[in-house]
Every structure is written in C-alpha cells, then in structure tokens.
C-alpha cells in the first residue's frame, strides 16, 4: 500500500487479534546482534525470519541470493527472499505471561479505566502495582449465613449470666462485625492489611484479586450497553451539580467506546506489538561499538522480565516472588509505552549521564515528536524564514521581502524569464546568471514579483490570522519588514521574533490568497468580531499627544474662519498645535451643529480628523487606545475594509510623526516608588515565614 492510497487515518485501541494480525512472528529472545558474527540473532529483536532480510533478496544462510528467488521462504533459515526495506514495515509481537495495563488509560487525565468503573485512578494504580486488592465476587447467601450465625451466637451469650460491661462490649463487637460484612461489596478496594483481616474472618463471603489480570477480568465482564442505559436513567433523575457532570464524563467515554466498537478489556495488553527494527536501529560506530535506539533497551527489559515470569509460573514459584515479577513486568511495559508518565519510577539509561530513556510516547508527542516535527512541521520548498523588523513606511497589505530571499523564492520564475528573453539558452546557464546576481536578474525579479502575493506565518499559529497574505516589496538587508498594525494578529513583536515566508505557486492559490488571506481583508477577529488591526504603542502616543488640549499656550482663544486658516496659522507659528481655538464653518461639524457655528477645538484635532473619511462626523475629543479601537470599529462597520485600510495607514503615519515631534521621554524621576512598598514586602515575608513554619511542623 502506498501513502497516496490512504485517504484518512483513524487512531484507536487495538485488540489482541489485530496486534497478532500485524505481527510476522513472536519475539522470544532479548538478544539483538551476535557479537561474533555481527548478524541478527534468531527470534531476537532484529530477527530476519520475523522482520525480513538485512540485504536485498538474500536469506540469512545465503542459500538464496538474487531477485530471481523473490518470494521464496528459505527452508533452512526461514527467511523470505524479499527487499530489505520491509524491515521498516514488518512488526513482531511479545506474548505477555500475564495481562498488563496500558498506562495511558490507567494514568491519563482523566483516567479512562477509572471513569468506566467510577473508581479513582490512584486506587486502580494500587491494584495494578499489587499494593491493594479489589473485590470481584460477593456471595449474598454466605453473607446472610454469617450474619445469622453471629446473631445466634450473640443471643446465646445474652442468656448467660455475664456482667453488663461485658455484654456492652459484646454488642459493640457484634455491630462492628456486622458493619464489616455489610461493607463487603463488589469493586470495593482493600489495602493488604484489610484484605488479610477480612479473608481470615469472612473468606467464604467474597473473592478478591490484585494486579492487571484481575482488572482485565472485571472489564471483560462489563456490559457497556447496560451501563450506558443505567447512566442515562441516572442523569434524568439528577438536575445539576458535580454528580451530573461526573456521570456525563463517564457516559461520554462509554458511548465513545461503543461507537468505536472497542472492548474495555483491550485497555489491558495480553500481546505487545514490537516496532519494525529499522524504526529502532542499531548503528555500528568506528570503534566497533554500537549506538542503539532507547526502544531496544526498553523492549529487552520487557522480554527478560516476561521470560523470567513464564519460568516462575512453570515451576510454581512462591506467590510473593511471582507477584513481584508481575509488578516488574507491568513497570517495564509502562516504561516502554510512556516512560515520562510514571511518577518517580522512570527507567534511565545505564550510560551517558543517566538520562531518561525515550519511550514510544516520547517519539510521537511534543514539539520534537513525530506529529509536530515531521508531519505538521515538514520542510517545504518555496519557503524561507527570517527575523522581522518594523516597516513603518509600508501599506497595510505590504511586507518588505529581502532581495536575496526573494531571488531564491522566485528562482524558477526568474529562470523562465531569462530563457524567454534568450539571456541564457538552458537552465544551467540561467542558474549561473542568477547566482551571478547581475543587473538583468534584479530587473527580472522586480517584474516577476509584481502582482504576486506571499504568505507570512508566525509560529505558533493559534488562529487563522497566524497566516496572512502580503504584497512583497523588495528591500535591502536580510530581515523581513512587516506593517506595525498587523503585529497583534500574529502576536508578534520586534525583539528577535522570526516569521516564515511561503510562496503560493498556482494561479488558484494566488487567487485564494488575494481574495481570502490578504491582510487588508482580515481586519476583524473571527472569534469576537472586534478589530484585530488597531494602533498600538507609539501610534497611540502620537494620536493622544496630538488631540490633547494644553492650557495657557500660544494662540489660546483665537477664532478662525476655516480649518485651512487655523492650520496655516499653526504652520506660521502664530498658534500652538494644541491650543484651544474656535473654528467657524467646520466642514465636518457634529450632526447637531450648524455650518456657521463656532467649534471649540485644536489644530491637532483638525489634523487628526483629516485622516478620517469625508462624510464622517468631526471627532472633537482626545483619543486613547480604547477610543481609537472604538472609532476604527465604527469606520469598518460603516465604510468597509477598503476605506478602513486607508484610514488605518493615515492614522499610523500621523501617530508615528507626532509621537516623534512630541519628544516624549522617560527619566528615572518619572518612575516614582510607592511609599508603602517596604510595608507590603515586610507583610509578604512574614506570611511566607508563617507558611514555612507550619510546613516544617507538618501542619501543611
């Protein structure tokens, strides 16, 4: 089967039958490679009979060599004559002497095994690791018989002439025993001491067991359909609260298992799959030593303990020894599946700083795991990455792309143009011309980049605005320049952040980028509908400073016949930019005001209003971050994204200009330390001292 033939992949719990179906043979020995022959041991972790030949079309003994024997199984060594790459696909199996719990379903949060039985995960762990017992069977008749005998004995002693104190003591003993018997219920967890005491007193009333073997029997006896039906009936009775939520969680797991046709006993492994050897290789180093995958160590531990347990069971070893070996096998299986999940009992390497061994789960989970590193995080062609810097001069739909990066990204397009213009006569010649970076190449690159869009992506891509399309502008240097207003959508800042560039190749992909992914089309947050492209930092400072009214400055109280006259007066230094003035016939007066009314404002506010759309009411107020966001949301709603984009770019330019002209700086004197700081610290230190004292006394 080829990868192309697979449409979808479904990950679910495998049954023992499915695991055996995957397998090409049982691995019974912990050996890997023979130190004398340097070849794989038979029935070991690298066995050629199970996993396939090490050399193409050659059996282990060398009797059959060559492609003409393809498909023949050697009757001497049992190896199939086939290509050696099957060692990446063929799996083996280990038949476990006793069932072992799957650590994900036992210790995962929430514990699936715990949810199904409605038993806390810690209690199930105690049973799995042989430090507790679970009652599997209760005999109602025997319980009744014991209670009757007890009552008979008590009544008989009552008739005897004994002291009142002794009688009271006898009554207490009877009540205590009665309570103990009534507490004997199916699935009740007992400690070792409790189990010993109860089995000595009322051994005939119940059966209890320990270990994953017992748990598997309990799960195998469960009727999931009946359990789901009972839980649904229970939900209808309950109205709200934690109890209902707990039942819903249980029901979700049970119904999920029923839908996927998973049997609960499959959470306990009787057959362990063995990964193909080429996915856990052993590589020979220069000094004759071998570097091996951690998985081989973990598999060897499982096989050794499993074989030892089989032998102990054969010779009918004492129960204490067998139980200890079963627990060790469970721990070995846990370490193989997920070594990091086991609290305090992780298996470490015997060499090299005693590091944790990398288990199957460690290979697939996390940032360096198979999914995120190799499947989702594949290296792709026509892409690059670089540090981002601010591009204050850019329009909202533009980004600055370094020339060298652009030349590499658009290389095939540039080569095509070179061949069309007959500047070179073959691809090799055109490639040499590109490498030489001649003037013609840069001219062609400028032409190729026109009307093309690139995608910018910043990891982690937490929402759809983490990837947006931009029109590239060729720039010098090696850093990508981005518009300051789109930082919020990418959650980017300029302290060393990196961004990836991807080039959509087909016309269809370019069309999609232009119509859906262009940054000027993505002004609103999909989650809330609020603007995601809003002025920040310096732009807010510039707009705030510009629209602020300063009392008692040059030109305060002057009256002007028009906005133009007021701006001219400010340019001629007759009035201050932030002086309170009156302007007649304001072209964008408030809806209520008449054309000839005088409007009390500042030149700064007039300049700010010139960035807004023509038929938008005059905004005669001081703008901070919240007011700016509200204003932009209103403009987007009323005028659409095209006008909103123009306004955003104008506001950005204005904000940067006037934050520069404001000359705003921060000095040490501006950072005032509160006088109550020492008192706050002293109180906190006193509280810490009290907590530490209580902890050392064992109160916490």
Automatic annotation (TrEMBL):
It comes from the Bacteria. GO terms for biological process: DNA-templated transcription. Keywords: Coiled coil, DNA-directed RNA polymerase, Nucleotidyltransferase, Transcription, Transferase. Residues 265-547 form the RNA polymerase N-terminal domain. PANTHER family: DNA-DIRECTED RNA POLYMERASE, DNA-DIRECTED RNA POLYMERASE SUBUNIT BETA. Gene3D superfamilies: 1.10.40.90, 2.40.40.20, RNA polymerase II, clamp domain (4.10.860.120), RNA polymerase Rpb1, domain 3 (1.10.274.100). Residues 140-180 form a coiled coil. It catalyses: RNA(n) + a ribonucleoside 5'-triphosphate = RNA(n+1) + diphosphate. This is DNA-directed RNA polymerase subunit. It is an enzyme of class 2 (transferase). Its EC number is 2.7.7.6. Belongs to the RNA polymerase beta' chain family. One of its GO terms (cellular component) is DNA-directed RNA polymerase complex. DNA-dependent RNA polymerase catalyzes the transcription of DNA into RNA using the four ribonucleoside triphosphates as substrates. One of its GO terms (molecular function) is DNA-directed RNA polymerase activity. InterPro entries: DNA-dir_RpoC_beta_prime, RNA_pol_asu, RNA_pol_N, RNA_pol_Rpb1_1, RNA_pol_Rpb1_3, RNA_pol_Rpb1_3_sf, RNA_pol_Rpb1_clamp_domain.
